[in-house]
Amino acid sequence: MPNLPFRPPPGMRQQTRPRVAASPSPRPRELAAAWDQLRRVPWFAISAAIHACLVVVLALIAGRRVPPAERAASHIFEVNLIAEEPKPAEEPKPPEPKEEPKPEPPKPQPKAEPVPPPELVVPPAPPPEEAAPTPPQEVAAVKATPVIQVKGGPGPSHDVFAARRPTAREEAVRQWGGTPGSEKAVDAGLAWLSSHQEPDGRWSDGDPQLRLAPGLSGLALMAFLGKGHTHTEQGPYRATVAQALRYLLSLQTAEGRFGEPYLVAGERHNRYLMYHQAIITMALAEAYAMTRDPDLRDPVRRGVAFIARAQQDAGGWDYSELRTGRNDTSVTGWQLMALKSAHAAGIEADWQVLFGVMRHLDLNTSPAGEVVYANRDPGSWRRGPGMAAVGMFAYLALGWPRDCPLLTQQGDLLLKNLPDWAEMNRNDPRDVASCLHTMYYWYYGMLALFQMGGHWWTEWNAHLRDLLIARQSQDGEKKGSWDPPDRGFDSAGGRVYTTAIAVLSLEVYYRYLPFYREGAFEALDIIEKALQVRGSDATRRRALGLLVSFRSDRAQGLLVAALDDPDPAIRATAQRVLVEQKSERVVAHLERQLEALSGFARMQGVADLARFGDKRFLPHFLKALRDPDKVVRDRAIQALRKLTGESFGFQADAPPDRRDEAIALWDRWARGDIVQPPPEGIRGKLLVVDEQAPNTVVLDIGSDKAVRRGLRFEVRRDGKVIALLLAEKVEPTLTMARVLERRGEPLHEGDAVQSLPDGAATPLRDGD
Asked: Is the separation of the CB atoms in 237 and 224 below 8 Å?
């Protein structure tokens, strides 16, 4: 175990040595004589001495070089997207924090519950005190990372844990779909966990190397905290929680790292480190938020700072704190949960860290709602909706609106893959279906769909709640626990892991309040700060793209303001998002764009207006048919075809006289002189069939029925297609057509004709 400073929670303070007696204090008579001599010194001499001391102090302060926080605060960590920003001068590397002497660990005390032993009796927490000043060395270390400062106020910012109190807990169980059976299962699971805690406060489940003990202990501790058990209030598990806190606090280094550095099979770095870091930080943050124990505040703050320093440049996290370039959604989800619990406790990470998480999710989420496990080395077990559940919970925790299409797609995806105990226990890595069913997936699904609500929550909760109750062990040594599967990563943590995860899942009704009521991150605050960063237009474009899920007035205002940005890519991104949302606030901008000097800009304006699917923009499209640029004319006729189902033979690349002829038909149609073709097509008859000119016929319909040159007609007799015609010369009441294709039967006057859909050229087939 590394030499770490150990700060135990209240009731576990170490015995301090008696202070060595100082030299005897001066006698009253001697003090009086000294004061009399001081009074005789002239006032200007005293003033000069004081000013001299101040000059010396200021000189010492001015000699120290402090990195400018403003410059560091505006930096966004983007990959290959901020080359245009000049690199700041390299600042001196902050000194490594000095190791403090390792205190001798207290001897483990025998556990006797529900009454804790005298050494672990914890008095009520004192009232919150002001935040202790940050050591200078630690400030320098934090400022060298994306997080400039981790703020730790004395009180919680959001009371998302309020439902854990006894009265509120009972109401939450009734309101959100719990049952007496689910509460009984939770109590049995906690009893089993308490009886399997080691004397030093950890849970290891027989792991001889203790590689998983830190994370397992954090999960187990959260299970007790989830039911409202703390180390500051009387209860059956007060000592259990106190011992767990003591163990976890003993693992933290001065830089904020948690977790033992045990390695496996020649590994050079602990692949479990960031899992441990997130889970322990999360557990301590919840304990701090629930008790306001001042001894927990600084460990949480340093844990959050270490998480921020370990973030990869693309916004996610890997197994270790090293800059690997690998971004793992599973690891990232746990870090966000830790930051969320710290946020609820009043300890905030800088917005850049949270924007990085948004960036990771945006890069790794498909339009269908599926989430990529990792950008490198995803592994054979990491498939299916498990990562969709992680992503869904992350989006909700960040403050995404529940009614956005992305979240509804993810909710539907989870319901298509309901928990299945048999599949979870089979878990064959060669079988994709069995890899979908893990308790890890079920846990994240429970969290995500509880926050989502609606029919997604109702169906998922009833299914998983009853499944977990039914599968809980009821006899012997295993009573209250859940069996781990034989293989798969659920099996790695053993019975402690499966029991803690199952208990946490069944506590969902009161572990957190719904985020839409209290406690989500303010996503729009974070996005707005990203939009204000200069020197990284890629960051600003990504921030605008994230607003596609937000339809509030504030989000619309941010997008409309970006339409006037000096960067054309920023303007284009804002316009794209507003058009995708079909926001009326972009219409005036698009209408002005139709008059732009750039043909590309006019074309984009036509295309974006067409996406509204609104016939009120038909005059704009008709005007664009006369545009000098072919690309604009082409977009205009595409929009007209989509809105009306007609083109009147207009082709964007046709000679000017042909275009003018078709435009004249469009003008007549716009005035109402030509009716729009019916959906079933234009119907008529063969008026003239001349045997001397067998390839030409005359129809009894013309432009007054919306016929135009280039339109194709089928000739039918007795339900059979016997010829295909092409209109070549159109008059108001007559049309001359050329026979493109015919069957053996001759055409007769009076045969029925019907127009084909615009652009269709269906050849005749045998049997027609």
From this structure: yes
Q: Do 707 and 730 contact (CB within 8 A), yes or no?
A: yes
Longest CA span, the chain = 144
Pair 329, 317: CB distance under 8 Å: no
Helix H or strand E encompassing 347: strand 347-348
Residue 411 confidence class, pLDDT cut points 50, 70, 90 = very high
How far is the C-alpha of 150 from the C-alpha of 739, rounded, in Å? 80
Which residues touch 12 (CB under 8 Å, ≥6 apart)? 106, 119, 120, 122, 242, 246
Split at pLDDT 50, 70, 90, the class of 129 is very low
| Phi, psi dihedral angles at 740 (to 5 degrees) | -85, -35
Where does 649-758 show beta strands of DSSP type E?
683-689, 696-699, 712-717, 720-730, 735-742, 752-755
Q: How many CA atoms lie within 13 A of 466 on its CB side?
A: 7
- pLDDT confidence of residue 49: 54
Report residue 329 as tokens: 């959604």
| Residue 290, C-beta contacts closer than 8 angstroms, at least 6 positions apart | 161, 164, 225, 228, 230
Q: How far apart are CA 141 and CA 762, in angstroms?
A: 73
Both tokens of 484, joined, read: 């781990």
- The torsion of the CA quartet 185, 187, 188, 191, rounded to 10 degrees, works out to 160
Structure tokens at 448: 């995500």
pTM as predicted: 0.70
CA atoms of 270 and 284, how far apart (whole Å): 21
Model pLDDT for residues 227-273, shown as the tens digit of each residue: 999 999 999 999 999 999 999 999 999 999 997 766 666 666 777 89
- Give the chain's length: 768
CA distances for 743 relative to 455, 714, 715, angstroms:
59, 12, 10
**Which residues lie below 8 Å from residue 212, measured CB to CB, with a gap of 6+?**
204, 205, 272, 492, 493, 497
**pLDDT computed for residue 669 by the predictor:** 86
Q: What is the rounded CA–CA span in Å between residue 279 and residue 223? A: 12
**473 Cβ partners below 8 Å, 6+ apart?**
479, 480, 481, 482, 483
Bridge-partner residues for 752, per DSSP? 685, 716
DSSP 548: G
CA distance 296 to 152: 11
Rounded-to-integer distance, Cα 379 and Cα 383, Å: 8
3-state secondary structure of 161: coil
Which residues on neighbouring strands pair with residue 755, listed in sequence order? Answer: 713
Contacts of 98 (CB under 8 A, 6+ apart): 137, 254
CA 601, CA 631: separation in Å to the nearest integer? 10
Question: Do residues 240 and 291 make contact, with C-beta atoms less than 8 angstroms apart?
Answer: no
Q: Where are the alpha helices (DSSP H) in 321-420?
A: 329-344, 351-364, 386-398, 405-415
Q: What are phi and psi of 727, to 5 degrees?
A: -70, 130
Q: Which pLDDT band holds residue 490 (cuts at 50, 70, 90)? A: confident
Q: In which region does residue 194 sit, left (phi positive, over 0), alpha (psi from -120 to 50) or beta (all else)?
A: alpha
**Cis before residue 116, ω within 30 degrees of 0?**
no
Average pLDDT over residues 360-366: 94
